[in-house]
Write a structure and sequence with these properties.
The complex is a heterodimer of chains A (about 170) and B (about 80).
Chain A: E1 2-7, H1 14-27, E2 31-39, H2 44-47, H3 52-76, E3 81-87, H4 90-100, E4 105-112, H5 115-120, H6 124-131, E5 136-143, H7 146-168
Parallel strand pairs in A: 1-2, 1-4, 2-3, 4-5
Helix pairs in contact in A: 1-3, 4-6
Chain B: H1 18-29, E1 33-38, H2 43-49, H3 52-59, E2 63-68
Parallel strand pairs in B: 1-2
Helix pairs in contact in B: 1-3
Classes of the chains: A alpha/beta (about 170), B alpha+beta (about 80).
Amino acid sequence: MLKVLFPVDGSSNSRHAVRYVVSEFQSNPAMDIHLLNVQRPFSRYIARFVDRKDIKAMHNEESEKALRLIRQKLDEASVPYAVHVEVGEKATLIAEFAKRLHCDQIVMSTTRKNSLVRTVEDSVTNKVLELTTVPVIMIAGDAASKAERYGIPVGVGTGLAWLVVAAAN
Amino acid sequence: MLDANRLGWRLHVLMGEPAACIVEQAAMLGSRGIVIGARGVTVGEALLLGSVAQQVIHTARGAVLVVRGPATLEENAPC
């Protein structure tokens, strides 16, 4: 049985990955699918003043929102799956979870980005590729937004120009 | 390894920019996906040294299976 870890963050790109998972399941139903949603922990300054039960409830609510569409798509296609919700650093937990569950594959979706945007941005998929030796199936989704595609190069260019001017003075 | 596992294969030799050639060839062959090895370098290293796997992931039309071996950058360092 092929054990697959499918991290879901609720982004629109997950739609592309779920389509892939469903089509793979239809051609090979011997798949054990594990959905994983990782929630960011609250800052300790905030967590200090909020009840633990409330924090847990908020994490559960957010993970339900993130998983809703994916679960719906899998249910519609009658694909069985297990759900896991964790709190912590996304990439580290995905890599750890894949190792702990002895997964054969990780299926992830990613936004299409250029090299500069990838370098500047904190990408979960890149970190997972750095951390795990479990084979990762990457499904490239939609292109990055215009703000990312043009804003980041303009920002980096402005910063460099400012440094050159400052050095010249 | 492919022969040992009795897997059929065909070799294609192309000249040009590796990532673009891989993506183009996959599209031309009508492949279901691309399987590629990766060194597991950081994004900064990938920008400086170039990572074909990263470029293929972001330009391919279908699924890309990335398999990272235990190899490190030292392996590629000149002796």
